[in-house]
Amino acid sequence: MSITEPRTVDHQVRADAVSAPQPHDGLRPRLSWRRGRVLAGCTLTLAVLLALRSHLPSGPGQLGSLAQTLAPWSGVAVPVLLVLALARRSAPAQIAVVLTALIWGALFGGVLIDKRQQGGGLTVVSHNVDEANRDPEGTARRLAASGADIIALEELRAAAVPAYERVLNRAYGHHSVRGTVGLWSTYPLSDTESVAIMPWTRALRSTVETPEGPVAVYVAHLASVRVHPGTGFTTSRRNEAARLLADALDAERLERTLLVGDLNGSTDDSALARLTSGMRSAQKSAGKGFGFSWPASFPVVRIDHILARGIDPVSSRTLPATGSDHLPVAATFRL
């Protein structure tokens, strides 16, 4: 017994050593193809909605328009979903997040690139000044300080028009106010007329006689959009105003045309496609970032636009806040 017993013990020790788990085996992360399937499904749903966003039906409550307008903010969900996928160590979820990130980047990544250039011969500013603005003269001074050649104002309150005129008329020798919209220019204006897009005047058209030739300028403020618990995202009045404005632009004879103002929607909203598809967004073509303009305190969407046809944008930007709930937007063009 004294001879064989050590051998038995030695054999047992070796067997235990072989069967014992290697150091760190329990700490080594392993991806699972079974975990996180619900998370992967939700992420893929987001990816599909992004890829097909321009084809989303209006559906009940015009939710398609709302989703298209807020689509850029879907990028905020990507890092959150990635953290959840990593925490779950789910292979399907991680693949779905990468796919969603690629789709978002393909759709909106180019918007983040700085495309602004130097130069240009015509600078335009558009601003919804807010009828409740308590400092119209201060707002006018800030807009005039931009050095713009053309300033377009929307949501003008009749009682506040003299205050804007007192300031802007010093630097802008030509102007016209029709209803709640106005146009100030350093260059002569001609053929100015109201554009009937609503029962009351919220749009005008004028020819700006620049040294390089005439440019048709449309200033518009489309009907407001409301969100109601019962009816959802209501856009019917805005969409009808956009259709009438598109008709006016289709009939425009001047090759060089600008559409500026508050469209109460983004250029990604398919409900506005007939109005915006034939024109270039100065922000998308020659800006940096999304250029969100509303609300001024924390902008989440760009509903104030400078769109062009037959004229090339050189740069685009938002201006500092005024007494309005919108930020002013500015763009420079090469004539």
UniProtKB/TrEMBL annotation:
<keyword id="KW-0378">Hydrolase</keyword>
<dbReference type="Pfam" id="PF03372">
    <property type="entry name" value="Exo_endo_phos"/>
</dbReference>
<feature type="transmembrane region" description="Helical">
    <location>
        <begin position="70"/>
        <end position="87"/>
    </location>
</feature>
<dbReference type="InterPro" id="IPR005135">
    <property type="entry name" value="Endo/exonuclease/phosphatase"/>
</dbReference>
<keyword id="KW-0812">Transmembrane</keyword>
<keyword id="KW-0255">Endonuclease</keyword>
<dbReference type="GO" id="GO:0004519">
    <property type="term" value="F:endonuclease activity"/>
</dbReference>
<feature type="domain" description="Endonuclease/exonuclease/phosphatase">
    <location>
        <begin position="126"/>
        <end position="326"/>
    </location>
</feature>
<feature type="region of interest" description="Disordered">
    <location>
        <begin position="1"/>
        <end position="23"/>
    </location>
</feature>
<dbReference type="InterPro" id="IPR036691">
    <property type="entry name" value="Endo/exonu/phosph_ase_sf"/>
</dbReference>
<feature type="transmembrane region" description="Helical">
    <location>
        <begin position="94"/>
        <end position="113"/>
    </location>
</feature>
<keyword id="KW-0540">Nuclease</keyword>
<protein>
    <submittedName>
        <fullName>Endonuclease/exonuclease/phosphatase family protein</fullName>
    </submittedName>
</protein>
<feature type="transmembrane region" description="Helical">
    <location>
        <begin position="38"/>
        <end position="58"/>
    </location>
</feature>
<keyword id="KW-1133">Transmembrane helix</keyword>
<keyword id="KW-0472">Membrane</keyword>
